[in-house]
């Protein structure tokens, strides 16, 4: 079977993705998908890398023999001493590359990949790239192509969300060891780099780890810095603290505070650290990245207003302060994949499907010779391979949308009444009639009986996840990288297991919903789901029963919407146990508002309450015929 491989040899982590005729997916290099960029001599003298190095005896008892962050040293003539042997950074990277390819080829039947794409920072000049060429040579790889990390990230992004020809995006790539920013313009056959990419060496997750560790050391009166790495007991404590600090930094992207147990030879010590503490520590560094992005935009000869979105890449970009700072500074949509650590590898793998027909592009990285492939085995289409999903992805719209700025949330017009309202409830309608494009071809498969995906680990095209409240009527897009998103009384986050965890504090009203964006599909004609006894289906796990009225809604063009009161439905769910909910669409039809039009749906799923409520949902979709299932909810059981 034909397959291509994209590999991102990062400073902190190494990741790989595989492209096959059926799509592009991450290679599972470890239970965490990625592997640490580490190397250490094994008992027989051979180099261990990745998980084998992290789990080796040296990692806990002799950290001096464990090499980390060697990508930063590429081009440095000083060799790294590991025990009695010395290595160049290129040799350590080559060992890691060789091990990754061995793992993948074993998983795919022992045969080598047809094409290989490697990535490098956009800021690397000729000298660094010449040094990097040693890595595949030492790994025994004679043929490969090289793309920059921002190009790869943008390629994956266009695979998830179609970008228009000529659209300009800024890539903000904050990884484990370096920061890169690049301006890219979408061209028919790839990405064009505009201006001069800029970056900052020694700016990334490793540096944030060191900063946090220094903060902990201060709170412990220097107890960490006085540990002797030559002492076996101290070395073990240092290795544990190193891992603990990295995990704490990552956890603070989802949790507001933590209490860490620091293992010291004198005993365990508890230290409290908050996200605000971390923000204060790294804010000066982040300001440097903002200034670099401004300079990159200027070098491209454009204004910040010309940028349509800022794309986040790199594992460290998940830190919430980054999203907040960029949004405040540039007032542009901030986009991120579900797992930013995977973005570059997935994009690199996507480029392997185009290797047989390289297209000319100004200012692109020139690829080296490509591994020859059998013509009958290569993917012949030049279209971006689809992302593998449980349900079919949305088809791109064939009708050009109107070029208007859409209001995500506007106050509900006075005079609209909804039959099922028991108490006075105000929701925020999601579009105005003057600004909403007409119905588009239905998203997903047009075959009868096919489910319409809305959310399954991430929002399916053309939908986007949003939260709204009285305080934030403009709507806040849900972070796709697992970090917590907050708007008024509502907090949500992707749980990394395919679910969307939602919590209402009860301190006001708020809603969570999925909606189509202008230019990504517009309103959808979903009338056949109503005609075919369809239902809104989703898996729900209750964490906290609702304390007030909960409504579920479907919106089209304001003031068009349909709504049901679903309080009893959610109150009856067993706590902590996943249950598949099947809510018949006819329940909405019975309680439709004025100007109801199922052929112009722009919001297929919305939950609103003004009380406290906690729930995780997954596999949200519309299914034809599901209302006839024996376990479907009866309309008279809702309120």
UniProtKB/TrEMBL annotation:
Region (Disordered): 384-403
Residue ranges annotated for the ExoP galactose-binding-like domain, each copy included: 462-622
Keywords noted in UniProt: ATP-binding, Chaperone, Nucleotide-binding, Stress response
PROSITE patterns xref list: HSP70_2, HSP70_3
The UniProt record lists the keyword ATP-binding: yes
Pfam families (UniProt xref): Exop_C, HSP70
Keyword Transmembrane in annotation: no
GO MF annotation terms: ATP binding; ATP-dependent protein folding chaperone
Similarity comment text for this entry: Belongs to the heat shock protein 70 family.
Protein name: Hsp70 protein
